[in-house]
Amino acid sequence: MKIVSRNEELLRDALSCIPQPSSRTSLASCNKLIRFEDISAAAFKIQCGVQKTPCMYSRLSKQYGMDIYLKKEFLQYTGSVKERGVLYLLMSLPQDQQRKGVIVASDSNFSMAVAYHASELRIPVFVIMSTSTAPARVKMCREYGAMVISYGTAAKDSQVHARRLAQENGYLYLEEEDSAVYLSGLGTVGLEMYEQVPKLDAVIFPAGGHCGLLAGSAAALKHLNPHISIIGVESESFPVLQQSLKAGHPTEDQACNNHHFYGDVSGVCFGSNSLQLTGKLVDKVVAVREEDILISMLRLLEYERATVDAEGAIGLAALVAGKLPELKGKRVAVVICSGNLELHLLQQCIAHALTLDNRVCRFSLVISDCPGDMSKLLEILAREEARVLDIKQERTFVTSELFTVQVICTVETRDKIHTAQLRNALLERYPRTAWTER
């Protein structure tokens, strides 16, 4: 996996060719070799259209025993790193196709990036979304300047309709794939990180089905310094990339979850070119649990004031879970690539994360239904500095004895040690206290 010179061609890839007059309405593919110069050219061309996001030293470094730098790609205008590949893809289209317009069919970060940058480039853009799409996403795409059409109850219905409209009207149907143009745009993340953080030992990227960011950035970083360790992180629930690498071709995980929480980290591995590039240049791919992703989201919110989704938090989750002990004492960059999480999901994620982090706990106990007994319980909670979030009393269905009340209490604590102290204090006064296990 050693790169000999700066001009060495990295890997055979499929280039999204300039569309020629034909019956096809999607980007055609032809063979081309990705070179470091392609990524450099992309960086030059898109520099005025995307943010050069900061790669900042994190306060989480001391907690995990390494120098952690966070590449904050969620600060892009649409909240996603996908803007880099999309902008370069749109700018590479011939003028006649730019005049006719483009069409996409999904509610993904890719579609939102197409909606925004096509509008900025004055390219007519149409986004077909299913009727089950979250209203907030529909509104956002419209505000970016796209013509949004709701069609069908499933994503496949929207895709079929989009292809038909593209065929009938001459629009270019775009979908996220691993063309050389798109990968070169995404690879500019690797260039920036190399400039921003000297003497990097390792870089952690989100992986999963859509591994274009991992593949493109690996090409740039390994060319600049073959000794930088490139690590991909995906979900244990659907290790699509690991299965595909093992099989030697893109595979589909039957257990794949389409829940919006996971975004692009779930799904089918979308191309053999990214897969080959990943297999050649990526040093390690690890999988993390959903619980680790939630804790990672909580850490980023608290320590970095960064509100991110699962795709954005999954890289840090590998450190949270202790999956990379070999990085202790090293300089490590983590790409925080996406921050598009619906508000109701964000609320649920933080609530679950606090519980997983042993900072919100629930217990129940039975006390006599006499004046003063409830105040004694509250005095214990106050003395132990536990914050009461919710407290309920049940009298009618208490089966232990008459004239008693069951108290169900939810409290917030500082950490796991504080929770254990509170538990011991309650058991000392109320031996039959029952704790709700998470």
UniProtKB/TrEMBL annotation:
InterPro entries cross-referenced by the UniProt entry: ACT_dom, ACT_ThrD-II-like, Ser/Thr_Dehydratase, TrpB-like_PALP, TrpB-like_PALP_sf
rRNA-binding keyword on record: no
A biological process from GO: L-serine catabolic process
Transmembrane segments annotated in the record for this chain: none
Molecular-function GO terms, alphabetical: L-serine ammonia-lyase activity; threonine deaminase activity
Domain of life: Eukaryota
Keywords of the record: Lyase, Pyridoxal phosphate
Swiss-Prot/TrEMBL cofactor(s): pyridoxal 5'-phosphate
Family annotation (Pfam families): PALP
Cited Gene3D superfamilies: 3.40.50.1100
Keyword Lyase on entry: yes
Domain ACT, chain residue ranges per copy: 362-438
Protein name, per record: L-serine deaminase
Species for this entry: Rhagologus leucostigma
